[in-house]
């Protein structure tokens, strides 16, 4: 069994609450993977001299397989439903970022999933 990680913001870039989107994401994870573990996280970064902070939920999913469709759906939920310009996802202890909603990004996730020991 391997773990995958996904980070979802509690508010989008406009400050809108993402409670509905979080519920949709959690329902999808439960339907596809039978469950998850989550905890709240806080992050910060500097862009163009300005410091930004956000609060998110980090999901850990334990699974023996990850299909292209599952990974693409997870990325699309974060990028589209949460109105994000990038998505953070992890395989094992490695963390990646993508802004790509196409299948090739999903295929990269599958490759990373299968390569992690």
What does this entry show, briefly?
The protein is α+β, with helices and mostly antiparallel strands and 117 residues long.
Q: Over the alpha carbons, how many angstroms does the gyration radius reach?
A: 14 Å
Mean pLDDT: 86
Q: Any idea what the shape is?
A: globular
Largest sheet: 5 strands, antiparallel
Q: Sketch the topology as an H/E string, one letter per element.
A: EHEEHEEH
Q: Beta-sheet strand percentage? A: 35-45%
- The residue ranges in which pLDDT falls below 50 over 5 or more consecutive positions are none
Alpha-carbon distance between the termini? 10 Å
Number of H/I helices: 3
E-strand count: 5
Task: Sum up the structure in keywords.
single chain; 117 residues; alpha+beta; five-stranded antiparallel beta sheet; 36% helix; 37% strand
Describe it:
With 117 residues, this protein is an alpha+beta fold. The chain has 3 helices and 5 strands; from the N terminus they run βαββαββα. It has helices at 19-33, 68-81, 103-115, and strands at 2-9, 37-47, 50-63, 87-91, 94-98. A 5-stranded antiparallel β-sheet has the order 2-3-1-4-5. Strand 4 (87-91) and strand 5 form a beta hairpin. The longest helix is centred in the first third of the chain and has 15 residues, at 19-33. The mean pLDDT is 86.
Topology:
Layout: E1 2-9, H1 19-33, E2 37-47, E3 50-63, H2 68-81, E4 87-91, E5 94-98, H3 103-115
Helix pairs in contact: 1-2, 2-3
